[in-house]
Structures are given as structure tokens and as C-alpha cells.
Amino acid sequence: MAHRKKVLLKVIILGDSSVGKTSLMNQYVNRKFSNQYKATIGADFLTKEVTVDDKNVTMQIWDTAGQERFQSLGVAFYRGADCCVLVFDVTAPNTFKSLDSWRDEFLIQASPREPENFPFVLLGNKVDLEPRAVSAKRAQLWCQSKNNIPYFETSAKEGLNVEQAFLQIAKNALAQQNSAVDLYNEFPDQIKLTNTQKPSGGGDSCAC
Amino acid sequence: MSDPGNDRNLTSSPVSSQSVEESDSLLPSSLAAEELKLALNKEATSEELLNAINRCKDLVLESDQCSVERKWLVRHLIELRLRLQECKEAMEDPKHPRNKTSGVSRRTVKGHHLNLQPLLRNTTSKYCDHCTGTIWGVVQAWFECEDCGYSCHHKCMASIVRECAHVVVTERGTYELQICPENGLSYQKYMCAECKTPLPLDREWSEARLCDYSGLYYCSACHWGSLAVVPARVVYNWDLTPYPVSQASLQEICLSTNRPLLNLEKLNPKLFTLVIELNLVKRLREELVGMRKYLLVCRSASEDHLLWKHVDTPHLIDSVEMYSLQDLVDTHSGELLTKLSNLIEVFSKHIKKDCKICQGRGHICEICHNEEILYPFDAIAYVCDDCKTVLHKHCFSRNNVNLACPKCLRIKSRTLLQEGEPIKNTL
């Protein structure tokens, strides 16, 4: 099925504060990194044009506030999301523990059609830092328990794996959107209201 | 070809001489080019005057005998010489207002920053705040305070008794909020509260005038019977009729009308239930304060300077409590209501229609899952005090017997789970 319309993929990045959500997005979209920490207020988004499976799509990446005090500015952006990216800091075990809460919260707020099959992607960020507190195996185990979520180990600082991770995110998001479109197409053949058999001749079509 | 307009004055035709006779003091048009050299403006220095006198002499010699020009020039020469004499006297007398080098053109008396006013400043019936006499702007040197507008003659400057209203208002920081706190004339020892003129009561007719703002008695020189809206009467009685106040009080009230000094919520909260307009204003301000939070953190709104462009009185949207006297007057007239609803229209257009970021920062009621975006400043919204979740008011009250926020319940159960089984939870 060819999409003539421009495809917009809405991606939400979630995770505890200071795990590197904004940095990951900035590295991916602007190829920039800053060591300075600046808390995101509410939410903000950047867009990027990408080509997935020979298709041009626009990714609208919503970066969110991890700090609870900034979440008073709402979460309406969860609606209509095509993919959710969960981020934790591999050197901070607490950020890994709260992944469950972020996932639950997303599913409740976004209320997607099929919660079990909604595409999530897990990113373990800051792999350039030592010491490591969450092993890759532990993260993969968690992913398996959640219906095989894809897992990437990234470093926003070094730009490691960021491109690959977001490409996977775009693919999963696109697949999710297509399945949603298919859902509408399951209806039986539509009755076309425009009369194609109407004679094209310029004459008077009136029978009398 | 010669210009007929120029010819008219050079040739002394009967028509032109007649017209000049009527406007005797006017500069003949043939001399217009010399205007600057002849020092016609009144602020000229002695050096300029000397040059002008010499120039004038030359011109007199150049002009035709008995011509209009010569007549005018001679008259002007005399005037210039008189002015030069005056100027010389001024330079010798350090107290003379025209003496700029002595720094007298700017003086500080009783907190007033008095500036010498140009003689020709067009003023319509200005009165001296000290002696109440008319200030004849063209003839008399007079001063005006740049802070409070106090104006007086040069001769009155030394005996000013009134403190600068700007200083008084800034030091006190608030209004007198007792309604006419009058203590009687005996309390003032039968003297005017400002200039200490005796105000005897033993005569049949007393000159003592009561100021409704300060509650003090004044003489007729310090209380001109001017009317002003008195803040205490507005706050406690919603009485916006102007009352007679002393000149000092009038200046104080005028200076602080636009300052947000009145915390109505603290002073008289009942007012909001009794005055419908005020209640409406309060509701609109609450909405605006909520919108301001969105606009402050929105990058596209700050790029457009949306807040600065449309708000001339920032205190109205900074908080909901503080009102200026002008706000209350405008509330009564209905002006403030229109102003605030216009602001709301502009702001909500940005937040709810134009800006994707602001829309994303809105809420969706998680009880009814309606697609319509809900904002904490909306009238139909309920905001949880603890987790700041926003729900429809009616959804919240309908689905809850014990009025608990669903997100708070989730957070609670999660922490319980984490505390109970810290190891298992990580898997």
C-alpha cells in the first residue's frame, strides 16, 4: 500500500531525570552534545526527516521532563504516539528500577489500541561511563519479560549506537502505524459513491 | 523672475506696511534667514546675545531708511540689550534661576527634584503648590519636581514644606487603609497638618478643611478641595466616589494609582462575593496566571514575545492577589474585564490552537479518556494537589467515593511494591 500522504511518526522518550533523554535526541537530530545538565520543562519536540524502507518519513521526537516537578505541565503529547522509547542510565540502578512505572504510566495515559503489542524500545544510555551498575543481561531479561522489546546500549556523548537505535525506533513506529491503518482496511469493500459509469459525453443526460 | 512674496516687504507698498503694522512684533519675512543669528529664542546665553547685537547693528545699517526692516531691527536691538543686561545680572547673582553655572536650575528640596522650567513652556493656569498663586509661565521663573509634579515659583522654593510625594509613597510602600482616620483638630493643636498655620475654632467660620484620605485638617492653601478616589473606602465599602483630599494626599494617591499595592484577598475577601465584577476579574486572572506558566516555558511564545507584546500591567498576570487602585476603578467601569478577556483570547489561541508544544503539554483526563485536551487553568479542570494530575471536575467527583486521585493511588501502590520486594521488582 503506497502512502501518498506525508508520514509523521510520533515518538516519545521517557525515563528518569538526567538519564540523557534530551542528549540522545540532540545527538540524533543535531549531532551535538553538551556536558551541561539542564532540566527539560514539561515536554518539547524536534523533528527529523528520515528514510525508512525507501519511504520518507518525518519523525516528531518528543523529549519529556523526567523530574516530577515539571510533569505538572501535562502529558497530552502521549496521545497518538507511534513508538515509546524508554531510557535508563546504566550507571544508576534506580533509573532501571523505575522503567516499569514509566511503561505503565505511558500505557495508561496514551491508552493505545493494543497495549501488549505497542512498540517500545529500551535504551541503556551512558555506556561510556564507569562503573557499570546494570548489566546488559539484566536489561535484556527485562526486555524479554515485556514481549521482547528491542534493547540498545548507547552513549549520547560518543554518539554510539544512537543512529542505529533511532532507525529501529522509526521502523517499529512505522510498522505500528501501518497495522493501525490495516485495522481500518479490514472493513469489506467500500461502496464508492461517485458514479464512474456516468457517460462522459457532453450531451444532455436527461432521459426525457 | 523675482518672487512676489519677497518683493512685498522690500518695496514699501501701502498694503504690506499695513499688514506688518497689525502684527508688529512678527519677524519680517525678508529677515527670516537671520533668525538664528538674532537669538530669538529665550534661552540664549550672554555670548550669543552679544553676537546677535552686533549682527543686528550691521543689519540696521544695511537696511533702507524708514523701512519696515529697520524699524523692527531697532526695536529688536533694544530688546537684545535689555536681555543682555538681565543676563549679566543673573551671572553675578548666584541665586538667580537663570544662572546655569551655579547649578540653580536643578535643586533638591525636601526630597523634590526641582527642575527649572523653560519660560515659554505652554501651560494653562498652573498654580504654585506652595503659595497657591498663579504661575505666569512667560514671565516668572518656576520649578517642577520631576518625581511628583510639585510645581512652585522660584521665590517659593526656599520655603517649601511639603515632602516629595514620591518619597513618602516609596517609604511607606502602602496606602493609608483606615477610612478617614480623623482625630480632631485638638490633636493637631489647631494647626494645619502641613504648613502649621493656626486654624482657630473660636471664630464663627473656620477655614479648617478635612482630608478624607489622611484624616487630617489643613488650611485652604494646602487643601484645595480636590477630589480623589480614596483607597480605604474602595477596599472596605466598594465606594468609588471621589472625596475631597489635601493636595499632599492627592499627589500621593495619583503617584501610586498604578502600583499593585492592595492585597484584596487579605484586606477584604468578602468583597469578591459581594461584587460580581470583581469575582469575574479574579477568575479571569486565575486563568491568566495559569496560562502565563505555559507561555513562560514555551519556546515559540518567547520567540514571539507574546507575553511582553500584550501585557502592559504585568502584575495582573504575575499573581492573583495584588490589585492597584486603577485596577479597581477599571473593574467598576468594566474596562478591566474587557482587557482581561482580550488577553485570554490571545493567550488561549496560542496555547490551544497555534502551538503544538503547548498542546502537548496539556492533559487528557484519564478517567473519561476524552480526546479533548484539558488544561489546569480551565474552569472545568480539577488539579490534584500531590501529583498535579489534571482531570475533569465532574469525572473526578463522579467516579470517586473517597475522592482519591487515580495517579496518586498508582504511585502509592508502586512504592508499596518496591519497598516490599526490592529484588524481585528489578526483574
How does this model look, in words?
The complex is a heterodimer of chains A (208) and B (427). With 208 residues, chain A is an alpha/beta fold. Helices cover 29% and strands 21% of the residues of chain A. Chain A has helices at 21-30, 93-97, 99-110, 136-145, 162-185; strands spanning 7-14, 43-52, 55-64, 83-89, 120-125, 151-153. In chain B, helix 3 (46-62) runs antiparallel to helix 4 (68-92). Chain B folds into 4 domains: 4-166, 2-Layer Sandwich (Wheat Germ Agglutinin (Isolectin 2), domain 1), CATH 3.30.60; 174-259, 2-Layer Sandwich (Herpes Virus-1); 265-359; 381-419, no CATH class. The interface between A and B is medium-sized, with 30 and 29 residues. Chain A: Its main location: membrane.
List its salient traits.
heterodimer; A: 208 residues; alpha/beta; 6-stranded mixed sheet; 5 helices; 6 strands; 21% strand; globular; B: 427 residues; alpha+beta; Wheat Germ Agglutinin (Isolectin 2), domain 1; Herpes Virus-1; 4-stranded antiparallel sheet; two-stranded antiparallel sheet; elongated; disordered N terminus; disordered C terminus
Q: How are the SSEs placed, and which strands pair?
A:
The complex is a heterodimer of chains A (208) and B (427).
Chain A: E1 7-14, H1 21-30, E2 43-52, E3 55-64, E4 83-89, H2 93-97, H3 99-110, E5 120-125, H4 136-145, E6 151-153, H5 162-185
Chain B: H1 4-10, H2 14-22, H3 46-62, H4 68-92, E1 106-109, E2 112-116, E3 126-127, E4 134-135, E5 142-145, E6 151-153, H5 165-172, E7 209-210, E8 217-218, E9 226-229, H6 231-237, E10 242-245, H7 247-256, E11 262-263, H8 264-267, H9 271-274, H10 276-297, H11 299-303, H12 306-310, H13 315-318, E12 322-323, H14 325-333, H15 335-354, H16 356-360, E13 381-383, E14 390-392, H17 393-399, H18 406-420
Antiparallel strand pairs in B: 1-2, 2-5, 3-4, 5-6, 7-8, 9-10, 11-12, 13-14
